[in-house]
Amino acid sequence: MKCDLCGANSMINYGNSESKLCEKCSKTTEGIELTKIKTAPTQNLESKSEATKSNYGIAQKITSLMEFIGWGVIGIGGLIVLIGILGASQDAGFMILGLLSGLATAVSGLFLIAGSQITKAMVDNADYTREILTLMKNRA
């Protein structure tokens, strides 16, 4: 008998059981039935805004603003590094100070962007979880 998962001809029936075990992938026919992919009902959903109305509009706007500010902070950090390098033609200490402060500023901007993207992911997760719950309730 051929296994539905791995395709090997190694299915074994143990005794009088309806369950058969594949020697190659160690899956039972009961497990195979559970792991078969079922096609989901399709809907005409082109984007998140059409599929799910978010309850977190303000959070989305704030995180977009925070991400924009983060990119600005990275740009300012880059300018500080350039000013430190160009303005320190005679003093190496000033150049090191400019490099370190500019890099620290840029890293702060990266943390702002990372924080905003994490927040966006959490909001999207909440919206999609609510949509899944709605679909499951409609199905029952």
How would you describe this protein?
With 140 residues, the chain is mainly α. The chain folds into two domains: 1-36, no CATH class; 54-139. Helix content is 64%, strand content 4%. Strands 1-2 form a two-stranded antiparallel ribbon. A hairpin with a 6-residue loop joins strand 1 (11-13) and strand 2 (20-22). The longest helix is centred in the C-terminal third of the chain and has 48 residues, at 92-139. The model is unreliable at 31-35 (pLDDT under 50).
Tell me briefly what this model is:
Keywords: Membrane, Transmembrane, Transmembrane helix. Helices cover about 65% and strands about 5% of the residues. The chain is mainly alpha-helical.
Broad structural category: mainly alpha
What is the end-to-end distance? 36 Å
In angstroms, what is the radius of gyration?
28 Å
- The amount of beta strand, in percent, is under 5%
**Physical arrangement of strands within the biggest beta sheet:** 1-2
Assembly type of the chains comes to single chain
Low-confidence stretches: 31-35
Number of helices: 4
Shape estimate: elongated
What's the mean pLDDT score? 79
Q: How many domains in all?
A: 2
Largest sheet: 2 strands, antiparallel
Helix content: 55-70%
Keywords: Membrane, Transmembrane, Transmembrane helix
